[in-house]
């Protein structure tokens, strides 16, 4: 393809995208295909000779779009939103146009420096303390592909930090560069005694990071009374039990805005407990809810002050509710050396005079992989186009939708809200009340209700015009099956939310009739 052919195909692609978005409200949100639908239509081998580009481009509509679940559909209420905006799509295109893996500053100075700037814009917008800002010279942030990558990176940093501390305690001296080299004996003696903690509500990223390090993950039970948030005393109890067995706590994952219910862990309590365990690192996963710190009125309920005081690292995904096309996960640390001392492996071919002089950041030393995407350009375009006020309006809209829906569900005789709603997430279940007694305080038969709600979920799941996901809330008291309705989509209006709720009510009535 030459430049003029690219120009033509590029315009056609933009037309294709515009048509897609013009029609997105009319397309069923869920892909109506069966497993293998695409595999069966594609040849087993790549073509021997190049094909006409027009034909390839047409096949995107013909073969690919039918198998797309439309996350940008106004009727997408599953998981959490994965916002995308036109501003960001253009940024992504431009980033592809200068495709480069940006691992060292010298690989593309703009790539590194823009990331330094926009991550700090984000940190300031969210109210993260100066310790997390790159301009502090000690802390700083990096853009990862996912909250899972951030959590794993935090785990590697935490493990190395704990082993350095144990080395120091064993009498190992720092080298000429001021750094502690962890001796093999310390790794062998302590490396497999390290334990990761989170709660039963921690996203699976916690257990996965532990698995990847070959270490155990303790999912500490939470209680309904505490609205599913992890408490300091339970963390202490779990740690003490392990310490008695000779194990070493090295990492706690706390969550601001859990996936199932939006619960906010008691960060201050956990932080105070961890002061007694100096090998332990606190990572706060605010993958979904963290962007809401942009709204000052929500900072207290989301425990921002506690995060600023106690967390060693923090992550939030702008690619969820933050207007930024996938992927863009902000990962900030209070001490960048926690990352570089764990991840800086520099063979001669990666050295540069700027890095040797210590005047630049080489982001490869802040992450597991070497090459990296030019993600900062997306966030730069978003934050400049929307401004902080536009970003805030977008968040407020999602919250307002949830608030209005809450009022509707609260009036319902057949549904109940399961946990105090947080931000733009509503968690509910079918729970018919006695129509003659609006206060209806009958004992809850959870097994029966769980069954009813599983049936409801099956009915909703078999529809293509709406997409909601289920969850099971595990707690010390009991397990509750319920349904989540996650708002905050860029293209969703309150009319769409109302329509979705009408469908939920309709399917709920069918379940109750069948149950009679
Ligand atoms: N953490 C929380 C609280 C989440 O809700 C999610 C996804 O919904 C994740 C982490 C996973 O994010 P990622 O896909 O970026 O790893």
Distinct helical segment count? 16
Mean pLDDT: 96
Low-confidence stretches: none
Q: Which CATH class of the domain at 105-382? A: Alpha Beta
Order of helices and strands: HHHHEHHEHEHEHEHEHEHHHEEHEEH
CATH superfamily of the domain at 105-382: Type I PLP-dependent aspartate aminotransferase-like (Major domain)
* Assembly annotation: single chain
* Shape-level CATH architecture of the domain at 105-382: 3-Layer(aba) Sandwich
Shape: globular
Protein name: Aromatic-L-amino-acid decarboxylase
Modified residues (N6-(pyridoxal phosphate)lysine): 320
Family: Belongs to the group II decarboxylase family.
Pfam families: Pyridoxal_deC
What can you see in these coordinates?
There is one protein chain. The chain has 516 residues and is of the alpha/beta class. It has a domain of 278 residues: 3-Layer(aba) Sandwich (Aspartate Aminotransferase, domain 2). The chain is 42% helix and 12% strand. The strands form two sheets. It has a seven-stranded mixed beta sheet with strand order 1-7-6-5-4-2-3, sandwiched between helices. The chain has a four-stranded antiparallel beta sheet with strand order 8-9-11-10. Helix 5 crosses helix 7. 44% of the residues are buried. The structure holds pyridoxal-5'-phosphate. The site of pyridoxal-5'-phosphate (PLP) has 16 residues, from helix 5. Pyridoxal-5'-phosphate (PLP) binds next to helix 5.
């Amino acid at each position: 393809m030459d430049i003029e052919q690219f120009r033509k195909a590029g315009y056609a692609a933009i037309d294709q995208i515009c048509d897609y978005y013009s029609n997105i409200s009319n397309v069923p949100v869920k892909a109506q295909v069966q497993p293998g639908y695409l595999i069966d239509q594609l040849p087993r081998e790549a073509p021997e000779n190049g094909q006409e580009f027009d034909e390839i481009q047409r096949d995107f509509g013909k073969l690919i779009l039918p198998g797309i679940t439309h996350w940008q559909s106004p009727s997408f209420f599953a998981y959490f939103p994965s916002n995308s905006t036109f501003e960001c799509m253009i940024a992504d295109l431009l980033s592809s146009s200068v495709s480069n893996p940006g691992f060292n500053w010298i690989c593309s100075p703009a790539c590194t420096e823009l990331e330094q700037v926009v991550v700090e814009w984000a940190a300031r917008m969210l109210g993260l303390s100066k310790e997390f800002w790159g301009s502090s010279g000690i802390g700083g942030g990096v853009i990862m592909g996912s909250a899972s990558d951030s959590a794993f990176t935090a785990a590697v940093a935490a493990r190395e930090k704990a082993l350095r501390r144990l080395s120091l305690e064993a009498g190992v001296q720092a080298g000429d560069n001021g750094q502690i080299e962890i001796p093999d004996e310390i790794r062998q003696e302590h490396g497999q005694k390290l334990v990761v903690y989170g709660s039963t509500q921690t996203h699976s990223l916690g257990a996965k990071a532990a698995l990847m390090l070959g270490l155990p993950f303790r999912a500490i039970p939470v209680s309904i009374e505490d609205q599913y948030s992890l408490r300091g005393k339970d963390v202490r109890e779990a740690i003490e039990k392990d310490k008695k067995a000779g194990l070493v706590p090295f990492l706690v994952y706390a969550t601001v805005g859990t996936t199932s219910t939006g619960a906010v862990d008691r960060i201050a309590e956990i932080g105070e407990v961890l002061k007694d365990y100096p090998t332990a690192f606190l990572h706060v996963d605010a993958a979904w809810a963290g962007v809401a710190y942009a709204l000052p009125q929500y900072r207290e309920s989301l425990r921002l002050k506690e995060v600023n005081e106690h967390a060693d690292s923090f992550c939030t995904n702008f690619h969820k509710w933050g207007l930024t096309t996938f992927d863009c996960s902000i990962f900030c640390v209070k001490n960048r050396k926690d990352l570089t001392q764990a991840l800086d492996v520099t063979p001669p071919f990666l050295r540069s005079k700027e890095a040797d002089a210590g005047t630049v950041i080489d982001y490869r030393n802040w992450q597991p992989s070497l090459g990296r995407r030019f993600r900062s350009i997306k966030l730069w375009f978003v934050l400049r186009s929307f401004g902080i006020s536009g970003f805030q309006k977008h968040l407020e809209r999602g919250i307002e939708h949830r608030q209005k829906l809450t009022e509707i569900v609260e009036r319902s005789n057949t549904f109940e809200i399961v946990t105090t709603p947080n931000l733009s997430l509503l968690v509910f279940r079918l729970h018919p009340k006695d129509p003659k007694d609006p206060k209806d305080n009958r004992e809850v038969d959870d097994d029966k209700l769980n069954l009813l709600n599983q049936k409801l979920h099956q009915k909703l799941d078999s529809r293509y015009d709406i997409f909601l996901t289920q969850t099971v809330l595990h707690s010390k008291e009991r397990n509750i099956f319920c349904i989540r309705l996650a708002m905050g989509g860029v293209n969703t209006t309150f009319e769409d939310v109302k329509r979705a709720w009408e469908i939920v009510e309709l399917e709920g009535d069918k379940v109750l009739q069948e149950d009679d």
